[in-house]
Amino acid sequence: MKKSFAVAFFVIVLCGLLVVPLLLKPPSVASQGEQQITPKITPSPDMKIVPEETPQSTPQPDSTPTISPQPTQQTSNDKLEGTINKAINFMAQTQEPYALLMLNVLYRRFGITEFKDTLQRYDKILSSCNQPLLKVYRRIADHNNTADETDFNAVVDIMDIITVPALYSDQSSPPENYPSVLINAKNSGGYMMTHALLATIWLQENNCNISLPEYFMETLYHDTAALTERSIPVTDDAIEAAAFLYQAGQGNLVHPDFAENVIAAQNSDGGWSWVSGTPNDSDWHPSVLALMFLLHVKYPATSYSPMLAPALG
Predict the structure, then answer these.
(1) Residue 104 burial (CB count, 10 A)
(2) Average pLDDT over residues 84-111
(3) Domain annotation covers residue 249
(4) Domain that includes residue 224, residue range
(5) Mean per-residue pLDDT for 205-226?
(6) Rounded CA separation 17/281 (Å)
(7) Which tens digits make up the pLDDT trace of 151-189?
(8) What is the sign of the dihedral through the CA atoms of 90, 91, 97 and 98?
(9) Up-side HSE of residue 24: CA atoms within 13 Å toward CB?
(10) In a domain, 252, yes or no
């Protein structure tokens, strides 16, 4: 009986030795027809933190966005330059006064000779019509611009209420409720949010400080950048968001694929439509903003000349 017990004990030990290596052996690589489980990747310390306001359904980039706004491998310099040249030719023909003001910014910032006479062309249009808002916004291109009370009475549209106080904030303090105007505009999203961003750019250039919540600017930048995370279609408000972010020195927040999407959305005439892929003709608004955005991508810098024309003398 002792002999039988010894034999049984030996068999049990031997089986245990054979099973242990099988339990310690790592799982084999799945065959070609089997589904593999992708491990979760821990975000690196450099990864941007998306604010809580960003919808969970917003597409995220496959990798951490590159801080440098240099053209990516997909967006070659040749393709970028060709797109910009076509856009310059398209915009050089415009007679839209507000477009001329934006082109004046691009002339002063990038020295594009085709836009050298944009202020003179603007004044020619202004002399032939009686539009008070044109007198008000002329200050973008001329620091010494004059507008009277009658002109400012035309500031009734919400977009003008957001931006005009900032445009003249070095001459007259914005109204007491102006912080609330900017906060409500940011919370409204879309064009109101991008115009709130534009207003903050002008406030900073005019060295005007107003009381805003502690994290207002950070969330304004990130919420505006979320508009550029769409891939297709490319829309006017997304192009505006990208252009104004670069104006604000926050171009690194623009989605890394957005420049490629904007280039692909250019129409054959060199302009852009309000919504890409639609049969609508090119329009000055998305076209001048797309050109503004792409010029900043092509010529990255730590700082640029002001958006508002400086005082002379």
Answers:
(1) 23
(2) 98
(3) yes
(4) 81-298
(5) 97
(6) 77
(7) 999 999 999 999 999 999 999 999 999 999 999 999 999
(8) positive
(9) 6
(10) yes
